[in-house]
Write a structure and sequence with these properties.
3-stranded mixed sheet; 7-stranded mixed sheet; 2 domains; alpha/beta; single chain
């Protein structure tokens, strides 16, 4: 039995890959006449005369429908180029054009940081409550692992609004252990909010920062500079909020962080564990407030957000929680990259992925820790079994 290739078929019938995927999905429910089989959890389109006829019929219907609906042509505004760097713009363009997705990390910039701050302060995040629970439980354990250091720098990667680190900072100050609180985040606005919040609670605490993308940047020089500046020999590096579960290449991120950790440092990371609680998070599926963080960026890209449909689902194929938007019309988005006009053509009913949160089992996460050349000292789960926390150091 022979099968048609996805890319060749989409090109031949002048349709998007997303449209073809929708047809294949409908075929499994007998909503069209395509002949398909499922192999290794993938829908395969049989190379047959019947399928050629059905593909022609479906593509003709799609063209008729396309001619009946409106299209929006949007020139990306000057504000977009002011918010994002050239490298980020290229990444956003490629993700949207070739993968039909927007990386959530970019939504934390600009007013997205305020949306996240409000979401956190209204106690709507299951992740934040579980991380806070486990961090409070393990505060004494953390102090044990830094007992031989006279002073440490608390390096917070992806600090959000800063409040998740507040109780740990209090503990460190009581023990006279903290020299500096240092923030690393892709969003300058997140850094500003976190700095303001922590400064309000600890007016005399020394605070430094770096705007950086941990998915792209190795952090060796950053951590070393924090030691030189504060005259401290040790860093306590936090990567909490389960942010690592938003990243497709978890191991590369761990290696980027590992590049900056030395023998005297401790690394703490939290992740979302695959369990009943994490799969059935009701806020993830139902909260309109959780969508506000994305709206500003979708508006800036030219989407008519009042007409978009937000969908949340669990993707069993990649073991992730996923949020998508379904487009209301055709869109032509025009970018200017290095003085060259680049266009993205999207179609009504296409779906754009705006968040993927990967759930993982403990064994797989421990394997990544080991592959990143880190030594696991301790692993704990919160009381709901939703969040896992690891305490690590570099391998001896």
């Amino acid at each position: 039995m022979n099968f048609l290739k996805r890319g060749d078929t989409a090109h031949k019938y002048n349709i998007s890959g997303t449209t073809l995927d929708n047809w294949l999905d409908r075929a499994t429910r007998k909503e069209n006449n395509l002949e398909v089989v499922i192999l290794n959890n993938k829908i395969k389109l049989i190379d047959s005369y019947n399928n050629q006829l059905e593909l022609q019929r479906l593509s003709t219907e799609a063209k008729i429908f396309k001619n009946k609906i409106s299209k929006k042509v949007h020139q990306i505004s000057k504000e977009f180029y002011e918010i994002f760097s050239t490298e980020e713009i290229i990444d956003i363009f490629n993700d949207l054009k070739f993968k039909n997705k927007i990386n959530i990390k970019y939504t934390y910039k600009n007013v997205g940081s305020l949306s996240w701050d409000n979401f956190y302060n209204n106690h709507e995040s299951q992740i934040e409550s579980s991380v806070s629970d486990i961090m409070n439980t393990l505060s004494e354990d953390i102090l044990y692992y830094i007992k031989d250091s006279s002073k440490i720098n608390l390096v917070d990667i992806g600090p959000g609004n800063g409040w998740p680190a507040k109780k740990l900072i209090e503990k460190l100050k009581i023990e006279s252990k903290i020299s500096e609180y240092f923030l690393v985040d892709i969003s300058p606005q997140n850094i500003d909010i976190a700095t303001k919040n922590i400064k309000s609670a600890f007016p005399k605490l020394k605070i430094g920062n770096l705007v950086a993308d941990v998915e792209q940047k190795r952090l060796g020089s950053v951590f070393l500079e924090s030691k030189v500046r504060s005259e401290s020999n040790s860093n306590l590096v936090l990567f909490t909020g389960n942010s690592i579960s938003d990243m497709g290449d978890r191991l590369s991120v761990l290696k980027n962080i590992r590049s900056g950790i030395s023998d005297d440092d401790i690394f703490i990371c939290t992740f979302t564990r695959d369990c009943i609680a994490s799969r059935s998070d009701s806020i993830f599926f139902s909260s309109p407030a959780a969508n506000t963080q994305y709206i500003w960026m979708l508006d800036l890209l030219g989407f008519d957000t009042e007409n978009l449909i937000f969908n949340s689902l669990f993707n069993n194929q990649i073991n992730s929680k996923t949020k998508k938007i379904k487009l209301d019309k055709d869109y032509n988005l025009n970018f200017n990259i290095f003085g060259i006009n680049r266009e993205i053509e999207l179609h009504a009913k296409d779906e754009i992925n705006i968040w993927t949160h990967y759930l993982t089992d403990i064994e797989s996460f421990i394997k990544d820790i080991d592959s990143a050349d880190l030594q696991l000292l301790e692993l704990k789960l919160d009381k709901t079994l939703y969040t896992g926390l690891v305490i690590c150091k570099v391998k001896c």
